[in-house]
Write a structure and sequence with these properties.
single chain; 208 residues; mainly alpha; 11 helices
Length: 208
Amino acid sequence: FHVHREAFIAASPFFAACLNPAYAFRESAANATVHLPAARAVDFEFLVQWIYTGALDHEELDAADHPAYFRLIRLWLLADALQVEGCKNGVVDAMARVADRSNSVPTPDDTRTVFGPDEGVVREGAGLRALVVDLFAWKKTDQLVEGHEDSWDEIFLRLLVCKLKRMDPKEKGKAPWRTDGERCRLYHEHTPGQSTCGVLEAKRWVYK
């Protein structure tokens, strides 16, 4: 990928370190080449799109008729590894939007990628984990969870049970991801010193 150095330095402390001669990665800084052998090309393409446009409106990421949560989860993992906080928050927003537009939730395989014990899963305490649990808690997913032929991740099921036990019945109709302020507070992650995404007024999406 041929990209603009300044754009990537501004978006990511990782790239800022790789491409800054003052740091230890002098070879990367000298020839402006960064090798990411573990990154999938398609995931990095989505990341490049976000860095240049601030949007994740690719049809493979934001399609309501065939939601592909696994692509969004993989992009979140890549953005987390490369310290692109804004893209991670964009993934959270896109996942919430797709879930409502398609009236769907992630698959059992997706829950294993998010919560499973293997290397490369979403880290504990991440906002994406909280969103996935909340999607199942607020949407009508009891029959899906009970009757799906594939197994769900055990950690996910435990967190979901705890969430349901602690929920106030009065909150059941107020899905938190549909309000900008709550979505930012509960699921977004911010750089040190930044407490919010700068959302001044809570508002709800209007789907057409």
